[in-house]
Write the structure tokens for this entry.
Amino acid sequence: MAVSTGPGPRLTIGELRGNPARRRREAILRIAFASAAMLSIAISIGIVASLVGQAASFVFQVDPGALLERGWFPRRELFGIPTIVTGTFLVAGIGMLVATPLGLGAAIYLSEYASPRLRRTIKPILEILAGIPSVVLGYFALSFISPTLVDAVCPGQTNIFNMAAAGIAVGILITPLIASVAEDALYAVPSSMREASYGLGARKRTTSLRIVFPAAVSGIVAALILGMSRGIGETMVVAMAAGASGGSLFQINPCMPGQTMTAAMTALATGSDQVRGLAFPSLFFVGFLLFVMTLTLNLVADAFVRRVRTRY
Amino acid sequence: MAARPRTQALSTADIVRQTLQGRRLDIGTIVFEGLLVLALAVTIGVLVTLLVEVFSDGVPVLAARGTDFLTTGLSSSPDRTGVAQGIMGSLLLMVFVIVLSFPIGVGAAVYLEEYARDTPVTRLVNTAIRNLAGVPAIVYGLLGVAIFVGALGGLTGGRTIISGGLTLAVLVLPIVIITTAEALRAVPMTIREAAFGVGATRWETVRSHVLPYAAPGIFTGTILSLARAFGETAPLIVVGAIAGTFRYSADNVVEQLRGPYTALPTIIYGFSRDPDAGFRADTAAAIIVLLVVLLAVNALAIVLRNRFERRW
């Protein structure tokens, strides 16, 4: 074999680096993409900064006693935080009561029982339901859920605006979310586990409930936490259907109108030109509370989801 | 073993066969599968009820008014009001979302998936984006009030459609990044390695190899996030979209950018709060307009996905 060692054309270091114009374009694009990604950090900081500043000025100025009043009347400087937090959890809790059986039932059916064809038909339907804006569900709560369903359950109930109707509508809103996250978790369980169960003679029901469900339980818990977080942050349904637009007394009866954190914020914002004094910064204080609550829930859900991913 | 008496109906083989093939009536299974089907049926039933309710309330208005409902401005009389300002406002808001969120979102996703190494900074950006996607929409409204209406009020003119558009753009940005990143991740590594192998730079690889294959997924994701922005109400109310009646602003687009504005979902909220019972049917009619737009957009996304989806 002859290896040519003669003085042929040699590559220089400069040629190996490539065309300078090409390299410059490469560097510029890398910086452009990187700054687009960094923008998300800037937005996160922006959210926290815009909330914390006003929220802090509210906390320093407000009379601490006004925060524990049994009622939420920001225009009279009565900021009963327990009132709106209770309302929020009441509405989100009713939502979870509706969405948990529906969402998990649909998820188990789609993952374990449905034929591939049925899955392909039903998943888009759930996606359509997930895509319906919350204003539409607010209208549905007022025009259908409250007069028919809630009226039948709550004896002598006369107010069309009530927390039960809002809660049921919130439940409808979060059902597709719970169904889709839970279904992903169930579907990710390796089929070898199902086959081992069948091999021991277990029924399909036993396999679903005792093998697949426990194996996917992290993802299912994550689905429920995400649903709760979504329910707490849901705004339009409660603003339209829960009643109590301006202010509300402490209320734990779901058949009655009540105030949630998000509805209180909408009410403050719709009249924000007239809002004077502490009412405007109180909007940011409530927003900050809401942000912290949903962030905590989302982080916990994230940790659960990651547990599923590492296992399989 | 002694021979079995001939009178016994079942031989051992029969018993084994029956145990293996037998379908004993199992009440538990019937109840369980029944409940699963019920959960799915209720979920789909709710969607059907919702659509029937909205259409039966709203179609008479659209039938009686025809295109007049779409082309007239807001009015305090339920028989004369229309959603023209809302359609105009929503379309302008979508321009902001398309022009800002899509390029920035796709750019950020390209950086995170194609350029970034696994550093603490990258992980921080990823965490920030995931959590931003879970922040309740109304909190983005507060961000808009503090930053776009307040701090940058000189540029945006305060409570104008510019502030609203920027707020919605920020709201959907994390969703665009997440869906785009998923589409990029689905492109197999071998495609990139082939490009690098023939000497392409990273950008050349992304532009001519990765993006074309990821395009259907990116389009589907961005279209769905556009639909999300189109139906979003709460943040717009907080940053000052008007839920009541105002004068039809001038035909001049520059004037519209500076003046009062509204959007289709905000009009729905405004109609639903009107004490005049005549507005109930108008609410449903406006919802039909909104749903038709959203269903068209969603159908487009699903068609795109089914047409271009490929398996590797």
Q: What stands out?
A: The mean pLDDT of chain B is 84. Chain B touches chain A through 86 residues (CB under 8 Å).
